[in-house]
Amino acid sequence: QVQLVESGGGSVQSGGSLRLSCAASGYTYSSYYMGWFRQAPGKEREGVAAIDSDGSTSYADSVQGRFTISQDNHKNTLYLQMNSLKPEDTAMYYCAATTRAGWWLLRWTDFLYWGQGTQVTVSS
Fold it and tell me: What local confidence, expressed as pLDDT, does residue 28 receive?
């Protein structure tokens, strides 16, 4: 059974940093593409970043240059380093996994398994 558990969210001021973690279990981690998504109140879920087993990455334009996705295949853990945070980054952040092609398009509908989310709040 696939389980994804996020941690590391919190409240920071604009310009600050946070690192999110996602602990994966119940499957062969390197067989899946992994991604981070976010959803703000009243808005549609949107893709933030994704990574494949070889380390190839994809980022949303809104976070390019500020966020970095990475993973530790030995620890079955996904990370999202978020720097230069802005109030518009405030959202619930979700970790997700998929085996479907097209992972780099960051479409949440392509991802099969989801964590429960961790809240990120950025104040101005």
Answer: 85
